[in-house]
């Protein structure tokens, strides 16, 4: 009988134990079915295959999953753990959930269980196929990594299917088509051809048909299973192709393929496959100019350079090819599972173009030619990571050298896949990207860690996606680096040896002439002069024209940045985003490292207050070593204090480090401690009380008597509405306008197409802020640390509304102080009811700009920052 191999991946890292050695006769004697067990070294159980959760034990210690071939697998964490009544387990899925290999299923407290359970060893058995001959691919007694292929078996191919296949191999069909897609046969339609072949279970091939009249029975062409082979046909619009299929449904498959090839794409104007979410194409204001949303103001001139993420370093060689082969299969499966999740999420958001992109990436991963090439390198002694690098590099070079701009563009997609799989084998962090001095860097999206790596070299940044409150935008402002976001896909096709990035006006000029370049140079000189003048008085406290004082503090991401904040004239640190210490590394920083970082910030600020925001992980900020449960909408998933309750060890280490860093420091003039803690994502006062109790417990354990001052961020609308209650418990409040705006308007701050409308100046968001200030009622100080604080218009309005502090990126401290000194806050406050009565943010922006411009005429003209009515900048 014909058969096919099937696999199961390890659901967690641990020591492989034969089932016969499990200390429970029901498992050891095979009564529950054949299988294997793992003694866990991890605390999260993951899906070992794609399938469905068909049962979750009420006590959360065991789950049954059905794989896509009908086998039902029981995953049982520990022995006799049912007796624990669910304590120490946290289910991350529910019965009926569809899961992909690698999805987290259940988190458990290894330390607690190892004290209370008979054993932690976790059997994995198939319960509805007692005669299944399983082969364990990892030696008992050795450690298997999560996701590594653990079990293999041969599954008989059903007789009906075999009969079908036999018939099918005889059936064949052929058809002809003319390529209609404007960009030719690029990766997206190519991956759809592959789906057609899979759906009809046929072997589908495509060949050039450029020799009219010739007997074409020998046209062989490329299998659609191989994306690289298909793209290397180099088919462009108007090319004739032959489509052939073998299999029972050959004719239907050929018909579907011909129809696909002959149908022009609806979005033919769009660029082809690019990693990451799609955004609306940027409007081209004038020929040779691309528009975007200004995330960080400034002017820069330089060559336009496309960003390529640095590749991680991997081992060159390995001595067990079989193990490497399995490791590569597991890594590819993991990346594929990630892509599938992204594809499904995009599909469920209705973003089909984006889903197609991920589908195309999955097709690359599944390309048999690439896989075979990697496996042959492994056979020659290469490690899995190196073999993957070499296999894809050959293809990347081929695409780049093809002379076809479209194919060359696909090299970036392959580079991304190269990096994602290699990341699974990284021995060291990536080699730093160099050679970008003065470049205007172009990328679709960038992770904060990627930005930090290149920020010191580049002159400016242009992103096709992103929003002005995304974390890369925040980092760009921190450094005073001109940056435009939400520029659309047209950006990715742009080129230029000497372009001008005018982030003040939201424009990228691709071919500025000499006159324009001279004007830019003059403007840069003027800006330098103005900021020198602002900086000269930046160390003075701010008194507004109506006599009120206001603090201008800085937002920083590390202890080292505190020095820059002080040099910029900041009155303190209003927000230290501590999660940046945790990002872009393989393990969490330990107590000593964190303590040193917090202490460095305090020392640099020389007596001024430093507010450290406790770890704010979730949404766009993910840690590789902290698997968060997959959730359809991460911005609404487990975040802030709710996340810490699930990871008390990490949270306690941070509290201890902060307590130690603040030990023995004198209090500030305002009666609060010099080092202050701030809790993100607070939804109600109970969460803040939980943190205070935990802080008190940790302080008692460390023998520290005085607790640091504890504040709450107001970034969830309920926190703004309940500010009265919060102010009774908090030592201070700080409004995080980035998240407050996104949650109030239900507009994701990471979605580029919403960036222009996701504006803090929406009358509804302003009303929430007004309610927050009214609720706090002077019982504790209220700051603003979101991007709005540094927005020329919004910052002025917030000052007029009565906030006590604006905390902005260091590069904006001087200009914000200069602007506030010219502001008559009382007069502007009188206009607030009129602004709140307007229809939308655009109307408020316009009215506010007019008010400030006329009020500025009455003041000494200086930077003119608040009167920049062309402002497309910094929102929320
Ligand atoms: C905010 O939400 O406004 C804020 C300051 O926090 P972050 O931007 O880091 O989410
Ligand atoms: Mg926030």
Provide a descriptive summary of the structure in words.
The chain is α/β, with parallel strands linked by helices and 876 residues long. It has 4 domains: 1-164, Distorted Sandwich (Glucose Permease (Domain IIA)); 289-307 and 434-528, 3-Layer(bba) Sandwich (Glucose Oxidase, domain 1); 313-428, Enzyme I, Chain A, domain 2 (Orthogonal Bundle); 537-868, TIM Barrel, CATH 3.20.20.60. Helix content is 38%, strand content 18%. It has 29 helices and 36 strands. The strands form 7 sheets. The protein has an 8-stranded antiparallel β-sheet, with no helix packed on it. Helix 7 crosses helix 11, helix 12 runs parallel beside helix 13 (471-479) and helix 22 (723-729) crosses helix 24 (763-776). 50% of the residues are buried. Mean pLDDT is 85; it is low at 160-169, 212-218, 266-283 and 860-874. The site of phosphoenolpyruvate (PEP) has 10 residues, from strand 30 and helix 23. Residues 680, 715, 736, 738-739 line the site of magnesium ion (MG). Residues 24-128 form the PTS EIIA type-1 domain.
Quick structural summary:
With 876 residues, this protein is of the alpha/beta class. The protein contains 29 helices and 36 strands. It folds into four domains: 164 residues, Glucose Permease (Domain IIA) (Distorted Sandwich); 114 residues, Glucose Oxidase, domain 1 (3-Layer(bba) Sandwich); 116 residues, PtsI, HPr-binding domain (Enzyme I, Chain A, domain 2, Orthogonal Bundle), CATH 1.10.274; 332 residues, Phosphoenolpyruvate-binding domains (TIM Barrel).
């Amino acid at each position: 009988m014909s058969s096919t191999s099937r696999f199961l991946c390890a659901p967690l890292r641990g020591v492989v134990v034969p089932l016969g050695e499990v200390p429970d006769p029901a498992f050891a004697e095979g009564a529950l079915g054949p299988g294997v067990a793992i003694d866990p070294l991890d605390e999260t159980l993951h899906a070992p295959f794609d399938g469905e959760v068909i049962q979750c034990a009420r006590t959360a210690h065991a789950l049954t999953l059905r794989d896509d071939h009908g086998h039902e697998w029981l995953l049982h964490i520990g022995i006799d753990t049912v007796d624990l009544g669910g304590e120490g387990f946290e289910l991350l899925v529910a019965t009926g959930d569809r899961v992909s290999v690698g999805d987290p299923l259940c988190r458990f407290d290894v330390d607690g269980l190892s004290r209370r359970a008979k054993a932690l060893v976790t059997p994995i058995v198939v319960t509805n196929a007692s005669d299944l001959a399983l082969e364990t691919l990892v030696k008992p007694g050795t450690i298997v990594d999560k996701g590594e292929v653990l079990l293999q078996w041969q599954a008989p191919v059903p007789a009906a299917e075999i009969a079908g296949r036999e018939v099918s191999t005889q059936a064949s069909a052929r058809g002809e088509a003319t390529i209609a897609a404007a960009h030719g046969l690029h990766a997206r339609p190519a991956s759809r051809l592959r789906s057609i072949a899979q759906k009809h279970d046929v072997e589908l091939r495509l060949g050039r048909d450029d020799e009219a009249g010739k007997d074409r029975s020998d046209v062989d062409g490329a299998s659609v299973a191989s994306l690289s082979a298909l793209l290397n046909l180099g088919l462009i619009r108007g090319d004739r192709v032959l489509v052939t299929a073998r299999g029972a449904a050959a004719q239907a498959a050929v018909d579907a393929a011909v129809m696909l090839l002959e149908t022009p794409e609806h979005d033919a104007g769009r660029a082809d496959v690019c990693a990451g979410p799609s955004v609306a194409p940027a409007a081209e204001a004038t020929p040779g100019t691309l528009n975007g949303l200004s995330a960080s103001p400034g002017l820069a001139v330089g060559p336009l350079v496309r960003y390529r993420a640095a590749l991680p370093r991997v081992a060159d060689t390995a001595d067990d090819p079989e193990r490497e082969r399995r490791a590569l299969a597991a890594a590819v499966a993991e990346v594929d599972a990630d892509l599938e999740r992204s594809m499904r999420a995009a599909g469920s958001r209705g973003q089909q173009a984006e889903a197609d992109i991920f589908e195309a990436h999955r097709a690359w991963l599944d390309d048999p030619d690439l896989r075979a090439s990697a496996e042959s390198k492994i056979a020659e002694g290469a490690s899995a990571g190196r073999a993957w690098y070499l296999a894809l590099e050959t293809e990347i070079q081929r695409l780049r050298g093809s002379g076809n701009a479209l194919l060359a563009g696909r090299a970036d997609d392959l580079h991304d896949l190269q990096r994602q799989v290699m990341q699974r084998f990284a021995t060291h962090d990536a080699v730093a990207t160099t050679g970008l001095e003065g470049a205007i860097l172009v990328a679709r999206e960038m992770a904060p860690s990627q930005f930090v790596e290149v920020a010191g070299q580049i002159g400016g940044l242009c992103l096709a996606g992103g929003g002005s409150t995304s974390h890369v935008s925040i980092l760009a402002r921190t450094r005073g680096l001109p940056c435009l976001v939400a520029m659309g896909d047209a950006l990715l096709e742009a080129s230029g040896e000497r372009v001008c990035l005018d982030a003040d006006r939201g424009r990228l000029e691709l071919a500025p002439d000499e006159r324009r370049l001279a004007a830019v140079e003059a403007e840069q000189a003027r800006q330098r002069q103005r900021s020198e003048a602002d900086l000269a008085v930046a160390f003075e406290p701010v008194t507004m024209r109506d006599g009120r004082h206001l603090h201008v503090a800085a937002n920083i991401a590390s202890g080292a940045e505190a020095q820059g904040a002080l040099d910029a004239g900041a009155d303190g640190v209003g927000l230290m985003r501590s999660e940046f210490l945790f990002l872009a590394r393989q393990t969490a920083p330990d107590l000593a490292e964190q303590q040193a970082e917090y202490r460095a910030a305090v020392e640099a600020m020389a007596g001024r207050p430093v507010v450290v925001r406790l770890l704010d992980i979730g949404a766009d900020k993910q840690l590789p070593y902290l698997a968060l449960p997959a959730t359809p909408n991460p911005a609404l998933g487990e975040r802030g204090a709710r996340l810490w309750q699930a990871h008390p060890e990490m949270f306690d280490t941070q509290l201890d480090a902060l307590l130690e860093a603040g030990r023995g420091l004198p209090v500030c003039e305002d009666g609060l401690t010099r080092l202050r803690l701030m809790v993100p994502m607070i939804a109600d006062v109970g969460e803040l009380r939980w943190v205070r109790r935990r802080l008190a417990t940790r302080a008692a354990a460390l023998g520290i008597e005085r607790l640091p001052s504890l504040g709450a961020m107001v970034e969830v609308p309920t926190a703004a509405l309940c500010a009265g209650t919060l102010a009774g418990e908090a030592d201070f409040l700080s409004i995080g306008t980035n998240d407050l705006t996104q949650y109030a308007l239900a507009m994701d701050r990471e979605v580029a197409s919403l960036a222009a409308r996701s504006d803090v100046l929406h009358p509804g968001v302003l009303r929430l802020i007004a309610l927050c200030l009214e609720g706090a009622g002077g019982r504790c100080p209220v700051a603003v640390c979101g991007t709005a604080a540094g927005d020329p218009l919004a910052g002025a309005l917030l000052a007029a509304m009565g906030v006590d502090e604006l905390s902005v990126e260091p590069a904006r401290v001087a200009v914000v102080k200069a602007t506030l000194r010219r502001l008559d806050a009382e007069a502007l406050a009188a206009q607030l009811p009129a602004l709140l009565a307007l229809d939308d943010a655009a109307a408020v922006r316009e009215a506010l700009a007019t008010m400030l411009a006329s009020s500025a005429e009455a003041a000494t003209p200086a930077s003119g920052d608040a009167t920049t009515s062309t402002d497309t900048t910094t929102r929320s």
